[in-house]
Design brief:
The protein has about 400 residues and is of the alpha/beta class. It folds into 2 domains: about 160 residues, Phosphoglycerate kinase, N-terminal domain (Rossmann fold, 3-Layer(aba) Sandwich), CATH 3.40.50; about 200 residues, Phosphoglycerate kinase, N-terminal domain (Rossmann fold). The chain contains 15 helices and 17 strands. It has a 6-stranded parallel β-sheet with strand order 5-6-4-1-7-8. The longest helix is centred in the middle third of the chain and has 15 residues. The termini are close together. The structure holds adenosine-5'-diphosphate (ADP) and magnesium ion.
Amino acid sequence: MNKLTLQEVDVKGKRILVRVDFNVPMQDGKVTDDTRIRAALPTIKYLVEEEAKVILITHLGRPKGQYKEELKLDPVAQRLADVLHMQVGKVNGVVGEAVKQAVDQLKPGEVLLLENVRFEPGEKANDAEFAAQLAELADIYVNDAFGTAHRAHASTAGVAKHLTAAAGFLMEKEIEAMGQALTDPQHPFSAILGGAKVSDKIGVINNLLNKVDALIIGGGMANTFLQAQGLDMADSLVEKEKLEAARVIMQQAEKQGVKLLLPVDVVVAEEVSADSSHKTVAVDQVPAGWKAVDIGDSTVQLFTEQIRQSRTIIWNGPMGVFEMEPFAGGTNALARAMAEVEGTTIVGGGDSVAAVEKTGVASQLTHISTGGGASLEFLEGKELPGIAALTDK
Ligand code: ADP
Ligand code: MG
């Protein structure tokens, strides 16, 4: 890792501004899922034990630079206190006199949560003045919010210009796990790509094509590849304007000796609805008016064989409309196959992670990325502003 990490800075007695991603789902003023809060606990607990003065900053929802009563962070502070088993202070602002005073009163080992940073218009604008004000609150900056690392905002990028800036433990784990797979993978290295659209994933495909031994394509985007090969996918989701791009990718794979696996059979339905009639057909037998909504059993077998041979696997994008039970079979089967692989297994992407967690095998995989959009951009090989802004070693 070429960026400074939390372990490498002396934090004792210092004011540490930690950007966390506590953008948690809420309902009726209560946190309904605290996964993201728990994901930041290693960093927060370490800082408490090292007797740092911990100042946490996060966004919640989309208040668009305005104060929004329902997006205040008091319930988040409460939940953090519950899982930390200690008191967590909370101020009603992000910068300004009241915040400075609260920070001044912090004792070593205490934790303070600032108000929703997106109440401030300077956050998304990455306003230089606002970033400088944030920096004044602390001696050292730590970024543990991988999920927002693809955004160049004041609390993720701007503030880091003014302070020593280190990666928190969660951030470090994300960069190490995915970075290792992309730069120095154990072979055979396979990527499984799915999800709705080719257009969302072209960047990921192109980056991974240069690195993998096998590319497995399923989900909605496989339809565009199959149609590009001359098959008739009937009413399936096909991106006509991406047929040429799909052809280019297939040629490129062949040229580079990358094994490209596409579905050989699919589950088709008359409607994308859980109670629709459905059946499994060969990819050249999709009936007029029907839609491919999952990969079929023969495809599961074909893909599973490739998965079993692999030592590194990166998965992004479900194999079908997994939100509906009848069309979740392919995604579930591949998740289970991946769980049995002894090498490195990584899942990134919002829906992919949700799918794997639903399958119940998440704990058997090497790394489940906490960032949806951020992990996609990482897999595209892009430099994420929140990582780029950290202090170089
Ligand atoms: P991720 O969030 O992991 O990056 P995507 O957002 O790209 O994944 O894709 C997930 C979506 O793709 C899901 O909502 C799923 O229903 C949809 N999807 C998968 N297969 C198909 C298909 N055959 N037809 C239509 N939609 C599909
Ligand atoms: Mg998604």
